[in-house]
Amino acid sequence: MSDTLVVGFDGTDGARAALDEALALAKDLGGQIHLVFAFEAPRLGGELRDLDEAIAERAREVLEQGTHHAAAAGAQVTTEHRKSDPAEALIATAGERDARYIVVGSYGERPLKSALVGSTPTPLLHLSSARCSSCARPNRLVDMRAVVLTKHGDYSVLQVQDRPSPPMKPGHVRIKVHAAV
Question: Which end of the chain is more exposed for a tag (fewer CB within 10 A), N or C?
């Protein structure tokens, strides 16, 4: 088994957390890092060539960002773009490179949600023979937009304001609205 760490890297906060974890592991183990961007484009009609080219361009950008981030930490990495399901691509890459670890980011989905909408860490844990590490994205206070009622009246008195996200407390519920009509 080599000291290679295969890192799923798509440029998200979770992927950056995974790369940071892999950099720390590589330093401790004296290992090498191999970044993999994997995406399986849907094959349902349309301009597939344009989509493939756009994904390839995005992969180049994201892998370059990861390479620069690793270089700033004093590490050198190799990179790869695969056109396949991310979990399958990471497992295959780990097998080809006889990797010691696969490191990926996670959004901390609950098991049911990850099964319904898809999640890379879940199949990795079940199918990979390499050790797997799933890193949660850093908890950052993200600004939110709030609809604020400043005085009594009809809908015209409502104002949309940017606010810092309040800390979660027991019994609180946070609802994320993507769009409303």
Answer: C
